[in-house]
């Protein structure tokens, strides 16, 4: 039998592939309530407790959390994504992990963000009976300013500027082991482990052409243009390649403004695709992957739902007031018969300045999960890493999207992991999130 991507990753990093039940995980397990007590994850934790573990510990932990009754001594191959039908994205909860922020910061280097994301998977609650949880990775492609390095908190190093045609980000992929496991196989390992956890996966892309470049060779890149057919093909093919590695969702930055819609509120840089052009692009991604269950999520939404549905989107953000439980429930009822597209509820988004209190975030999470008559009618929801694992008080989600500071006090990755997030109050908040999901998973 062909060696799995997970086994290749373990071997490439010097570990054996025989899996062991993980006692640390057993001590931190939370379960779904009632009939869904077989759904497990770890909570009441600090992210550093996960990030400072080895990749072998992480895989052992993920398998220890298996919903099945048999412990796998070797990681199974193949692993299939949980099946929620072709329209799964319409009701999903999208949880964005800033895989660059949790990457290993050693000195001025930033690396191995994908391995850190794998280590976080045990603490992401699994999907429920009626809806899926989907992990969105913030960065896949090289960013334009200083990829592979961290910078001072006030220096620009935006994750919104990306290069296509130059492979994958040095922040994310472990290039030291690419002779043993390719970057593509590293993504496959992440997706297999997430799917084993009962999670869907996706990635964020920019579509503002002023924020994109095309790599010509090692030392040369040029501005991206939607008027250039070759650039459009490159964008499509890069997305198709990722979907074929196991990703099933794409979060599209500035999607509300495609085709020149409401550009008075557009804050991106450069032209966006035309409406018919984006219809073609999204349809081609589905056609070339042979998958019609891909969920395309558009940043921002408005009352013109038909516009987004006909564009090919599955869900949109920032329309329903997450602070108003009754309003969320009312919109859930209004949209219950539209199974192709729905506007969504935000706990927070990538522009979050970090001002909401813990209780506000918890109330928004409750509205996202419970403000519906039937769980199968729930609206899609959107949340950031900060909504499950609170960040330190002097930073916020948007700051970490726009810059890439190390919070290490001694130059080590362990110190960065410890200081990126809050401490005891963050642990208790994570426990509260765990209790909310424990009740939600019985739906």
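^ structure tokens above, recovered residues below v
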């Amino acid at each position: 039998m062909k060696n799995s991507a997970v086994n290749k990753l373990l071997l490439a990093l010097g570990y054996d592939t025989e899996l062991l039940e993980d006692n640390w995980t057993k001590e931190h397990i939370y379960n779904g309530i009632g009939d869904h007590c077989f759904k497990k994850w770890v909570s009441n934790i600090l992210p550093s407790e996960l990030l400072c573990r080895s990749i072998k510990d992480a895989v052992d932990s993920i398998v220890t959390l298996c919903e099945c009754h048999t412990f796998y001594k070797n990681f199974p191959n193949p692993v299939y994504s949980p099946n929620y039908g072709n329209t799964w994205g319409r009701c999903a909860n999208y949880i964005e992990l800033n895989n660059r922020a949790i990457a290993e910061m050693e000195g001025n280097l930033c690396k191995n963000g994908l391995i850190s994301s794998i280590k976080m998977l045990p603490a992401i609650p699994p999907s429920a009976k009626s809806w899926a949880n989907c992990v969105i990775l913030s960065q896949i492609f090289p960013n334009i300013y200083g990829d592979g390095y961290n910078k001072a908190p006030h220096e620009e190093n935006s994750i919104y500027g990306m290069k296509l045609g130059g492979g994958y980000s040095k922040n994310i992929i472990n290039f030291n082991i690419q002779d043993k496991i390719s970057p593509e196989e590293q993504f496959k390992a992440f997706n297999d482990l997430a799917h084993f956890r009962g999670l869907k996966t996706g990635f964020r892309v920019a579509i503002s052409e002023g924020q994109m470049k095309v790599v010509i060779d090692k030392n040369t890149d040029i501005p991206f243009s939607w008027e250039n057919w070759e650039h459009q093909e490159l964008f499509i093919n890069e997305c198709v390649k990722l979907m074929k590695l196991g990703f099933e969702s794409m979060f599209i930055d500035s999607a509300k403004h495609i085709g020149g819609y409401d550009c008075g509120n557009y804050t991106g840089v450069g032209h966006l695709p035309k409406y018919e052009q984006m219809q073609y692009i999204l349809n081609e991604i589905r056609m070339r992957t042979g998958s019609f269950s891909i969920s395309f999520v558009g940043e921002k939404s408005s009352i013109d739902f038909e516009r987004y549905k006909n564009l090919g989107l599955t869900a949109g953000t920032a329309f329903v007031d997450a602070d108003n439980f009754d309003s969320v429930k009312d919109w859930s009822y209004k949209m219950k018969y539209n199974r192709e597209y729905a506007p969504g509820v935000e706990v927070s988004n990538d522009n979050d300045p970090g001002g909401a209190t813990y209780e506000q975030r918890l109330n928004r999470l409750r509205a996202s999960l419970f403000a519906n008559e039937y769980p199968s009618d729930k609206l899609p929801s959107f949340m950031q890493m900060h909504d499950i694992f609170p960040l330190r008080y002097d930073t916020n989600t948007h700051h970490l999207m726009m810059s890439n500071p190390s919070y290490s006090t001694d130059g080590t990755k362990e110190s960065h992991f410890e200081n990126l997030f809050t401490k005891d109050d963050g642990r208790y908040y994570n426990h509260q999130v765990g209790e909310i999901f424990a009740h939600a998973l019985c739906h």
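DSSP finds 14 helices and 15 strands in the chain.
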